[in-house]
Design a protein that fits this description.
Shape: globular
Radius of gyration: 21 Å
Order of helices and strands: EHHEEEEEEHHHEHEEEHEEHEHH
Strand order of the largest sheet: 3-2-5-6-7
CATH class of the largest domain: Alpha Beta
Largest sheet: 5 strands, antiparallel
Structural class: alpha+beta
Helix content: 25-40%
Number of helices: 10
CATH superfamily of the largest domain: RNA-binding S4 domain
């Protein structure tokens, strides 16, 4: 891969939550190279310096490697280097201080520092265990125990996006494919989530792929080998007096939304 679309790369680098938000930022002139706004379809290459305007700060990121797949946070530095100029970083720090001083602790949206503290749990694990009465841990249970029994496996995903010159492609938001001949597992047609009326439509095809440590872990591999390994970690977790393991990674199970709500209600009942 020698080039990739800018909107895909921004999403893959976790600079934007969705590709559509990244594309909208391009359309609004917030994404630039050398101060020149980029269209969502602009192709970028290794060595390009991408400027991202988040008023009033302009961040700069150097492209180190290319991918169209959304990365886990720990892999991002291998693909992107922060090269924001000192004056812009100073402005950003001043803004953060101002927001922190005018926000009561524990209220409102967490600051980036607070989110980094969450991301860096393993860097200061004992600190959090010592100050918390209870910790609800929704990360990987095998990582929590330092992979002492080995690594659990997951199924990864590749996403392929297409803009089609038609009002309607499949008449539904999501259609799943379970046959062996179809290379993708489902197609999402986004406009059906919103009920939007436009002459074009955008679809996403999801392709299964082998999972690589550090990437987003989408689906646990609940085969005999991984189930046996997970049960070993469960036995370790029973010895914890303040850590509660939850979620898809902590419980090594796929959850639909109703199951998430059910598990949360069960937890509250058990704690009360």
């Amino acid at each position: 891969m020698s080039e990739v679309r800018i909107d895909k790369w921004l999403w893959a680098m976790r600079l934007f939550k969705t590709r559509s938000i990244a594309a909208e930022a391009c359309k609004k002139g917030h994404i630039m190279i050398d101060g020149m706004p980029l269209k969502p379809s602009r192709m970028i290459k290794v060595g390009d310096v991408i400027q991202v305007r988040r008023q009033p700060v302009i961040f700069s990121f150097k492209v180190l490697a290319l991918t169209q797949n959304r990365l886990g946070a720990k892999l991002v530095p291998e693909y992107m280097q922060q090269v924001t100029t000192p004056d812009q970083l100073e402005l950003w720090e001043m803004l953060k201080l101002d927001k922190a001083n005018n926000r009561a602790k524990g209220l409102g949206r967490p600051t980036k520092k607070e989110r980094r503290d969450l991301d860096d749990f393993f860097d200061d694990k004992e600190k959090w265990l010592n100050i918390a009465d209870k910790i609800i841990f929704t990360g990987m249970i095998d990582e929590y125990y330092g992979y002492c029994y080995g690594e659990l496996e997951y199924r990864g995903l590749n996403f392929e996006f297409e803009t089609l010159d038609m009002e309607n492609y499949q008449g539904n938001a999501v259609i799943n494919y379970t046959d062996a001949e179809t290379p993708y597992t489902r197609i999402i047609e986004h406009k059906h989530f919103e009920g939007s009326d436009s002459p074009k439509t955008i679809i996403t095809k999801e392709y299964p792929k082998a999972w690589v440590k550090g990437e987003e872990a989408y689906y646990p591999m609940n085969d005999d080998k991984n189930t046996e390994l997970y049960n070993k970690y469960v036995e370790l977790s029973k010895k914890e007096d303040k850590v509660i393991f939850g979620g898809r990674l902590g419980m090594y199970r796929y959850f639909d939304m109703w199951q998430v709500i059910d598990e949360a209600l069960k937890l509250v009942k058990n704690l009360s």
